Amino acid sequence: MTPRTISHIIEPNMVIEGAGVLLRRSFGPHASNKFDPFLLFDHFAFNNPLEGPVRGFPTHPHRGIETVTYMLEGTVRHRNSLGNQGTIAEGDVQWMTSGRGILHEEMPRRSANGNIYGFQLWVNLPAAEKMSQPRYQEVTAGSIPQVQKDGVTIRLVAGDYEGIRGPVTEIAAAPLYMDVKLDPGARFSYPIPSGHTTLMYVFEGTGEFSGEVVESVSMVVFNDDGDQIEVKTEAGVRFMLIAGAPFKEPIVPYGPFVMNTREEIEQTLRDLKNGTFIK
Ligand code: CO
After folding, report:
1. Is the pTM of this model over 0.85?
2. What separation in Å is there between the alpha carbon of 278 and the centre of ligand 1?
């Protein structure tokens, strides 16, 4: 097995979204589609009560994407045009397939100690599924398999590890998405087929990734020059491992919509205007 080398490291930008929510954004949807099949990675980290009340994401539409929300601390209250409502609690995952159209609201709340900490990943849908039926997969913390071995603790959201399958399935991109924590002195390697986009969001500690030292908080982008990733750490490190096969289709992003052509974006805007967005 050959380790993949690091292409580059992204230092997340602070951005403001929704009704004034401060986020760390590693990347957002772009026509260049460099992280295909992934479109966006945001990190909610409100850990200073002096930031004042936490604002949220009032009702907004999506078309053509899937969003994955993973909360580590604090909660997100949500409701949507399918009639679902509930709370994404600590350790829970919500996987939303917007398909042809969904309207939803997402309202973060601080935990008892004042923190909100979580991630939202956007995954593209292939052209054939952009107008599919919208749906939600709610995964509670207790149903996410946790594997512990040789100082490595993995929470497996989607994909396989040592014969165990994560609970989020039937996602068009069939991605790998897992929360990996290495104790001081631990090592971790994982095979990733060549051709698959591979990212790691390092959010705690410091580690050596393919021989290069990376400190939190950073998004590591790997080259497609090997078939496995290798991590070791002296002091301990925690990261999200994100990998998947690209669709290799052109994309046209427009705010919360990601379609394949400009005409499809124009149709989306007409649907919203004419009240035919939600069927
Ligand atoms: Co949304």
Report:
1. yes
2. 15
